[in-house]
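A favour, since you know our structure tokens better than I do. Just paste the record in under my message, thanks.
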Amino acid sequence: MNAPSGVTFPTDLAGQTIVISIEPRGAADTDPGPFQFKPLVGNVPGGATDHIEYDLTDQSSTLAAGTATIAAVPAAAPIDLVLVGVIIAVVVAVIIIVVVILERRRGGQGPE
């Protein structure tokens, strides 16, 4: 079913090279030949007969490979409470100093 253009079934593949290729999707591939990713390739002998299986060679080791790792992301480290305390103390001290300076400019004594 659905023979490619120029092919009719049954087709005599004796003496031919058979390629199972991974093809790109869409208009990116306009070449009717097999794409460069060919995980399975085999030769059908010249005297091949109908309904006999012939082996294809696994070429998948020639393809690009990689790995993906899925791991839990560690929780963000809590802010050091000592650091937060120091920052708050500095801010409070700066506010007190500013209040004292402004109060003295107005002629008051400011907090004692």
Q: What stands out?
A: The chain has two domains: 17-62, 75-112. The chain has a mean pLDDT of 82. Strands lie at 17-22, 37-43, 57-58. Residues 17-62 form one domain.
